[in-house]
Amino acid sequence: MIDYPLVWGILIATAILIYVILDGFDLGIGILFPFLENDEQRSTAMNTVAPVWDGNETWLILGGGGLFASFPLAYAVLMPALYMPVLLMMFGLIFRGVSFEYRFQDKAHVKYWDIAFTGGSMLATLCQGIALGAFIQGIEVVDRAYAGGWWDWLSPFSLLTGVALMIGYGLLGATWLVMKTEGALRDKAIRYSRITLFLTVGFIALISLATLSLDAQFMQRWTSWPYMLYSSPVPIAVAAVSFFLWRSLNRTKDYKAFLAAVILFVLSFIGLAINMYPFIVPLELTIWQAAAPDNSLAFLLVGTVFLLPMILGYTIYAYWVFRGKVKDGKGYH
């Protein structure tokens, strides 16, 4: 007997994680954009992600569409609660996307497109982090409907997670540039990788402690037996991967730093899953309470079995075709 809600919960969580990793590094480049020295470095940085950035957002659509189709009750509760940060995130992604296309064609207004690229990347990332923080801190539900206020998504905790995600995406962007560039830009990316790594680890620790204070269940899952058996390896792994990332910088195999940054995000996501499971609306609705009927989930899964390998296939192929270093003055555009 297939547990369809659990299968779909894993699929949606995986799609969101893949989106965060793939779109995270190109949003991170936008966040780092003002700190690059000149137009040549900015153009090279953009060219490292130009062939793949729009395909990365496929996973956001898959995650959002999958939530709507497979967990309609959760979608109906979460969207009113997070409407404003999600809307602002979409505006940020639009500005980022438009600037991507116009910057290389409209040379007379490059500085304005740079502002749009940076502003859109920062706005989208900040709103993603705020939505995450609002999700973690809890959403008020009465009679299976959102019962909170318009501004419940905005709190010190959600702002903290928003800033933390900006730093984390900055780390992904910096390590991506270490892997994909050469010379002065690579050296600068190494410096930014060290700074953002230090800040990212600090924010992981700070948010972890703040999360424990939100609800007694969160504290129990990290400090009581037998929960500690599967939760305690996560912070140990975070410390080990952070040390490996630091040591990997300025070594010959530049891909190791980016790979370590990705693993750091995966570990953080696992930590979030330990807090949340089995809830899809924290401490209010489980994945089974919010799921669509099994026959609907089974029907959707049939299409997904064919669609998901195609998406994975062309994503892997695109990254394979455009592998290697991007030299100054050369690229996709």
Explain this structure to me?
- By secondary structure, this protein is mainly alpha-helical.
- The chain has one domain (4-321): Up-down Bundle (Formate dehydrogenase/DMSO reductase fold).
- The protein is 76% helix and 3% strand.
- It has a two-stranded antiparallel sheet with strand order 1-2. The chain has a two-stranded antiparallel sheet with strand order 3-4.
- A hairpin with a 2-residue loop joins strand 1 (141-142) and strand 2 (145-146).
- Helix 6 (110-137) packs across helix 7 and helix 8 (183-212) packs antiparallel against helix 11 (233-248).
- The longest helix has 32 residues, at 72-103.
- The radius of gyration is 20 Å and the shape is globular.
- It starts with a helix and ends in a 12-residue tail after the last helix.
- 42% of the residues are buried.
- The mean pLDDT is 89.
Write the layout of secondary structure elements.
Elements (H helix, E strand, L loop, with lengths): L3 H29 L6 H11 L3 H4 L1 H13 L1 H32 L6 H28 L3 E2 L2 E2 L9 H25 L2 H30 L3 H8 L4 H4 L1 H16 L6 H22 L2 E3 L3 E2 H4 L3 H28 L12
Helix pairs in contact: 1-4, 1-6, 1-7, 4-5, 5-6, 6-7, 7-8, 7-12, 8-11, 11-12
What is this structure, in a nutshell?
By secondary structure, the protein is an all-alpha fold. The protein is built from 14 helices and 4 strands.
